[in-house]
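Protocol step 4 of 6: structure prediction from sequence.
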Amino acid sequence: MHSDLNTRNETLTTFKNFQLSDALLKSLEKMNYKTPTEIQVRSIPIALKGRDILGSAQTGTGKTAAFSIPLVEILNRSDHSTALILTPTRELAKQIMGVIHDILGHQNHLRTAFIIGGESMSKQLNQLKKKPRIIVGTPGRMNDHLEKGTLDLSQTCFLVLDETDRMLDMGFGKQLDKIVEFIPEERQTLLFSATLPKSIVQLSQKYLNNAQRIAVETKNNIPQNITQDTVLIDQRDKYIQLVAQLKERQGTVIVFVKTKHGAERIKKRLKGDGFDADALHGDMRQNQRTRVMRNLHDYKFRVLVATDVAARGLDVPHIEHVINYDLPQVPEDYIHRIGRTARNGAKGEALSFVAPHDKKMWGEIQKLINPEQKKQSQPQKKTNSKKTSSTGYKRKKTNSKANNKGQQKKKKKNFEKSAPKTKGGFKKKNTKANKKPNQRPSSIKKSNKKTSKKTNQKSNKR
């Protein structure tokens, strides 16, 4: 069962109000942590009391510190107990480990272990032999060590499941169950998820005991300081539009694509066209991913082409733009993708390329970010004016003649060949053909069929 926390404790305005140890307060001061965020105000006191938590909060709200601070404080009060933090991706695990190391400071006696796939097993074995009190990692590699008997979780009193919805999406459900079997039933568990669908609630009933449910900004997970725009475009015209947008924009850009092969291909094309670019995807070894992230932090390149491995856990303050070259396969990942910009209160911009085959997914994304808004139809080809919605999505007023059902069906088939004019100044092309309005030349239709076949063949290979 869960109890709801409907009121906020506004009196806790500094970290001193949490009655933390002096050493921990000094570490937070060095980290420039002055005022706790909402998720921290609502979670830390509950966690310090030993309660389980089922929490949801948007990215960039300080969630990592919300569970890391009480974790360190509780372990400092004990001599033997340990803590385990599980995350869906290596990038997120590394970010969490960095925050914990900062919180611990240089003089803290608590040892840590970083257990993720793609790294040397021998290096991890050396860390585990030193009896770490805090273990951070991904489910797959954790299970590897448990099966080999090299990981002891018998003293684990504090379990954190972060980005749990993503772990389930990635198929880690059974692995989580196996890991929990090695952990004592008498423990404190904090489960965090960007959203709380039925699958997460059901999972919480297995893992949590009388949990406090805490939700922050669940109505609309899009930070107000992110400007969103959309470009309607054919798949074959995306790269040209991408180049135009990159030339128009200033600052660091993340370009999200669907596949690892697409990431490498676009990176090579961009470098050939004179852009400082690199790629990040799940097929890279950990040392390669670490090098790319370090170079991104150090401004050594401007454009990162990435798959959804970078959608969560990537915290680079100077990222100013996110471009969804391909829409995500899960609507919730849209929120995480654009959350890579506008970090720590800064402003950012997000641009999405919407091809004809993306209309259904774009509709699902709109439902997610505007749940109270009526179903938003896709823009039609013929327009009289442009209108920008509250989300920054550029809609068009359709011609009144489009009320005829036959014409509406025809217009859906005749999707825009190229993008409407956007902030980047990229204008749509005029199709020359002696055809009736809203009807494409047969040559273009054939070309579209060939393109779609090639796209389907490539996606099948992937």
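Step 5 (inspection) to follow. DSSP finds 16 helices and 16 strands in the chain.
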